[in-house]
Model the fold of this input.
Amino acid sequence: MSEAEASTSPQRTRRGGVLGFLRDLLVILVVAFLVSFLLKTFLVRSFFIPSESMQNTLQIDDRILVNQLVPDLVDVQRGDIVVFKDPGGWLYPRSTEPPRGFERVLQAVGLAADTSNEYVVKRVIGVGGDRVECCDAQGRVMVNGVPIDEPYVVIPPGETRASAIDFDVTVPENSLWVMGDNRYQSKDSRYNQDQPGKGFVPEDEVVGRAFVLNWPLNRFTWLGTPEGTFTGVDAAKEN
Done:
């Protein structure tokens, strides 16, 4: 090897190493974005909480992950926290700044929470065929005639009922009756009975079931239904 070749070999090696690193980094980023996009499209999607209607389970600006296999492959269950597209007239108009270019890209591939104004987060209280009514003598909601104990419900001081208004409905098949955990601050099925859908949410509008509160990290929580909340409801429905 000549002296000229020997002197340039380290430079070529360094240059090749840098280019190789950049090439590998680009491949990793492309794969990461692709995987994230596929997850967002078919499996998991991220949303943020814009209101106080689900306190204290979910706080304003919390981030949740949603399982999109529900309800297409997995049935919706009573007690599930679901995200659904506004059936029409549920949401108050909100003026929010649209996401900027980079944030819009991150939302599209599932790396940022969806901040659009067209989705609602509530808890499922009744599924198709259920009779849901309020309230019994202790102020509890009843499903198929069975009073349910709901530890997640927020009731203001001075109030004793799980709902400020009375209602008695039978949920159509393939639909849901949903309510917020913060019952006195939630514009849910009860308050939308004058809309075309009469307060019921078609299962086709459900994006998925929230299964984890993932942000902020100090509030990381698996989301589900407290054990025993709906005990006896199915048996009463069959009778």
